Amino acid sequence: MLTKRIIPCLDVKDGRVVKGTKFLNLRDAGDPVQVASEYERQGADEVTFLDITASSDQRNIILEVVEKTATQCFMPLTVGGGVRNIQDIRNLLNAGADKIAINTAAVHEPEFVAAAVAKFGSSTIVVAVDAKRALEGWEVFIHGGRTPTGHDTIEWCERMSQMGAGEILLTSMDRDGTKEGYDLNLLKQVSARITCPLVASGGVGNLEHIYDGLTTGRADAALAASIFHFGEFTVAEVKRFLGEKGVAVRLPTARLVEPVKV
Fold first, then answer.
1. Which of 65, 111, 199, 227 is deepest in the core (most CB within 10 A)?
2. Residue 112 forms part of a structural domain
3. In this predicted model, what pLDDT tens digit does every residue of 124-142 receive, in sequence order?
4. By three-state DSSP, how is residue 106 classified?
């Protein structure tokens, strides 16, 4: 049985970890290097680092922050934000990233995903999808949730899977930061249409929400931010809860740890 992954997410703006609600009203949540190091100590399987304004500001991701994080953390690091071409991917991998998340550039040029997979392998390429409810279904947004694209989310995720994406990182903009739980209907529909792993994102408020996303939502990994950043739960607590409910996870070898305030 494949283990389910628990992935803290670091949304970064101006070199600081931030967290908002529905992509708005951002709060400071600490230094990215310190925050990532703490999550590694707690037993996170991976950490996702997203420069949330790189695309909308039309600038490259802050490589020095990625380098510092990768130098001090040895768990897999997924990095996204402002990735526009093959050289951007190469620069991030050289800075220490293990996977590269592509969002806006994939919408502008879908073939870029296939080209990136051909160059670096599918296991390196993640397609991040920000989805918002529309009159029918969900619409894909880009530029950090600022710009609608007209793409249907279910069809877009399926297309990106067919392009060779190693996994889909699917965020419900409607649930982001609300602590109301993942959009399970969205997760189920996407998981039924793609052949690559699905990472659930947006809305975690308690441990049951993560369990539901991995079981009812059929996600392969659970991404969360607020519950970790502000000390409500540790990664170790999440994993122990899931393990007790029969979900296969990589349990921390150390004792259950309390969050360190950063």
1. 199
2. yes
3. 999 999 999 998 899 999 9
4. helix
* Ramachandran class of 137: left when φ > 0, alpha when ψ lies in -120 to 50, beta otherwise: left
Whole-number Å distance between alpha carbons of 216 and 88 = 36
Which pair of structure tokens corresponds to residue 123?
A: 């296991």
Contact 165, 190 (CB under 8 A): no
Asked if the structure places residue 250 within a domain, the reply is no
Active site residue 45: no
Q: What is the CATH classification number for the domain harbouring 176?
A: 3.20.20.70
Range of the domain at 240: 5-244
If you average pLDDT over each of 13-17, 71-75, 219-223, 248-252, which comes out highest? 219-223
Catalytic residue, candidates 51, 88, 130, 176: 130
pLDDT tens column, 173-216: 999 889 999 999 999 999 999 999 999 999 999 999 999 999 99
Domain total for the chain? 1
Say if 262 falls within a structural domain.
no
Q: Is residue 70 part of a domain?
A: yes
51 is catalytic: no
